[in-house]
Amino acid sequence: MGREEAQGNRDAGGYTDEPLYNIGVVSRMTGVPVATLRVWERRYSFPRTARSVGGHRIYSDHDVNRLRWLKARVDEGMQIGRAVKALEVAEAHGRLGPGQGRGRPLAEPEAAEPSLAGFGRQLAAFLRRNDTAAADRLLAEVLSLFPLEDLILEVLRPALADLGEGWQQGEVSVATEHLATHFMRQRLILWLSTGPATRPVPPVVLSCAPDEWHDASLLMLGVLLRRRGWPVAYLGQAVPLEDLAAFADDVRATAVVMVAMRQATAEALSSWPQWLKASARTGRPPVCYGGRPFTQDPLLRARVPGHYLGDSVQVGIQRLEDILQRFTGAP
Fold first, then answer.
1. Crossing angle for the helix pair 61-75 and 23-30, nearest 10 degrees?
2. pTM for this one?
3. How far is residue 170 from each of residues 121, 164, 174, measured CA to CA in Å?
């Protein structure tokens, strides 16, 4: 290809379809190992690279940016096969143009694209109909457009609240509410197990209060914490305070976070100093807590020692990270 033709195929950002880079260079540019690039091409025909005279793969700027986009989705917890399909959907609808692969995908300025709130309503509607297949496709579409943190806070959380309200008002059966909750828990647990490299500090221990079985908000907090590079030890539902204290001591926890969603379980947290004695005496590791009863009753907060994380997951993740940075000195 001549210089004039290559220049003519550049977009406004200077990107070109001309094959330029060998696989080793692309691996360094994208952070995707050479072996993984070969596997993606073999299994998913992605990307369809040009070949040199000697049969070696050669990648263009556009290939590199698509790979960066794909890696970002995989890092956010999307399975590679679904990520490739999400990329195809985004490109087919003009949501990912040349040169947009470095960060989150960008919509065309005038595109009529569903809002995060709209996606949340759609997700709730699918789950009210027990249509988990449609819900799964919707999550893949959202992840093709927005970061995982936005999906959790602006789509999953409102949908879960909608299902809970529907159950309280008799519009949603117990079976449907359980199906929706387990659907969301499964995705959150998957995302909790993936993410960027973590800081070289002991884990943050996350636990529900004794006899507390509602852990969706705790899982959301854990995923968001993991995405920010903090190691997480997720203990989950209904953990006795004695066992929690022994575990936190054994792993030398950076912090302990407890969640209660009912009045009785929230009141039980007031006794944590009996078990986490070092924290009660020295403030290390810091003990944090949150949950619906604490947002509704300031007097209850006054009876539970430690760091109250606030009245929402958004506030909680920021307060928790501030505490972690202050106690560890980590950036």
1. 40
2. 0.67
3. 19, 10, 9
Same domain, 181 and 236: no
For the CA atoms of 161, 164, 165, 169, what is the dihedral angle to 10 degrees?
Answer: 170
Contact criterion met (CB below 8 Å) for 47 and 59: yes
Closest to 285 in 3D by CA, of 330, 249, 258, 325: 249
- 179: domain range? 116-192
- Please give the structure tokens belonging to residue 308: 């109250």
- Residue-wise pLDDT tens digits, 53-101: 778 888 888 888 889 888 888 877 777 888 888 888 877 766 554 444 4
Token pair listed for 131: 């249509």
In a domain, 110, yes or no: no
pLDDT, one tens digit per residue, over 231-276 is: 999 999 999 999 999 999 999 999 999 999 999 999 999 999 999 9
Give the C-alpha separation, 36 to 268, whole Å. Answer: 49
Are 211 and 188 found together in one domain?
A: no
Q: Which residues are paired to 256 by β-bridges?
A: 205, 287
